[in-house]
Write a structure and sequence with these properties.
about 350 residues; mainly beta; six-stranded antiparallel sheet; five-stranded antiparallel sheet; 30 strands; about 5% helix
């Protein structure tokens, strides 16, 4: 399990997923004949030898599409107008690490990243956030630990993230600390219940008392103040994605390529084996709680890596993957995804030509 712990340090929130047999199309998802419309964005100028990285996209409550990305380590934002044009690049932060872009429950979009609170004096590492309201970005505010994993919003709009270094914490509350743990993922369902999964990754001297390791789960019904006894969901594999939908269900994807669903009245269902060798994935839930995934197999020597898109049907089957684009194997082999109010997916990535692309199916 120490090998997978290192993967967490290398890849932050990288996820394995896959798909099963093709299923039926559903509202908002493209059929097999749909054409992908991709456009390069006129992004912020780059300094010599700098590159674009970590594009992220999200819709606000008015239906406007927002894009953030790193350009030479600086975090920029652009917004798409109704005619399809993009606003001029707007600098959000001079130095930012691990940025993400999320829609808040009130419909605002918020950019979150880790970095110095005081850039000039290199002091105060923290998870920070700015939100866009009525066309104006809020000042940067510290909202969590510098060691935070992927942040999520509670129903009241407050951001939360698990954090830790060999332990799993939510703020000052220890969720798991008896054995070395990494890769904490948090989901908060509509009723306000907190759900956490993480990788139990014991050191050699801990195996006798902690076991070989695996994916652990715990929940909290009081806003993260107290947590249930950790439950082992799967041995010898790590969690890579945890989402809560509007029905209160949880969607979990594991490093071994399996998928599990949790329902409030039934608990965890049996694993479903998904057979795609992908090492990176991001996902979104559309208005109908349908899961849309983008994946890339970038832990390989192949210089022609592909980004793929796949989604799950209402009957639980998975559609066959389709190619989105070639990945940028030099700077950022990742891809982002979001969905509009009608369920149509949108994608963002850095192309092999080094440009930032945003695409949708016509």
């Amino acid at each position: 399990m120490r090998k997978t712990a290192l993967l967490w340090l290398m890849m932050s929130a990288l996820i394995v997923a896959g798909c099963g047999s093709p299923g039926r199309s559903q509202p908002g998802t493209p059929d097999s004949s749909a054409a992908l419309e991709a456009n390069a964005i006129s992004a912020a100028p780059l300094a010599t030898d700098a590159r674009y990285e970590t594009p992220r996209i999200a819709f606000d409550n008015a239906g406007a599409l927002h894009l953030t990305y790193l350009a030479g380590g600086q975090l920029f934002h652009q917004q798409r107008a109704d005619d399809g044009s993009w606003s001029a690049p707007e600098l959000l932060r001079e130095q930012a690490g691990g940025p993400t872009l999320l829609r808040r429950p009130n419909g605002e979009v918020c950019a979150l990243w880790t970095g110095y609170e005081d850039i000039a004096n290199l002091q105060g590492n923290a998870l920070q956030m700015r939100c866009l309201s009525n066309g104006v970005w809020s000042p940067a505010a510290s909202v969590g630990s510098f060691y935070a994993y992927e942040p999520v919003f509670a129903p009241d709009g407050t951001p939360h993230a698990l954090s830790g270094n060999n332990s799993i914490n939510l703020g000052e509350v220890l969720v798991s600390g008896e054995c070395s743990s990494v890769g904490g993922l948090l989901a908060i369902d509509p009723s306000g219940h907190y759900h956490a999964v993480w990788a139990l990754s014991p050191l050699p001297g801990e195996v006798a008392s902690c076991g070989p390791g695996g994916t652990m789960y715990s929940s909290s019904g009081d806003g993260g103040k107290t947590w249930s006894k950790p439950e082992l969901l799967a041995e010898e594999t790590d969690p890579r994605l945890l989402l809560a939908d509007k029905q209160g269900r949880l969607h979990l994807l594991l490093f071994d390529g399996s998928y599990r669903q949790w329902q409030p009245d039934k608990g965890w269902g049996k694993p479903v084996e998904l057979k795609l060798p992908f090492n990176y994935i991001r996902a979104t839930l559309d208005a109908n709680d349908a899961i849309h995934l983008v994946a890339t197999d970038f832990l390989t020597s192949d210089p022609n890596l592909q980004h793929y898109y796949v989604y799950q049907n209402k009957d639980g089957s998975w559609n066959a993957p389709r190619t989105i684009a070639q990945a940028d194997t030099i700077a950022d082999p990742t891809i982002a995804i979001t969905a509009d109010s009608g369920g149509k997916p949108y994608f963002a990535w850095v192309g092999k030509d080094g440009k930032v692309y945003v695409a949708r199916y016509k």
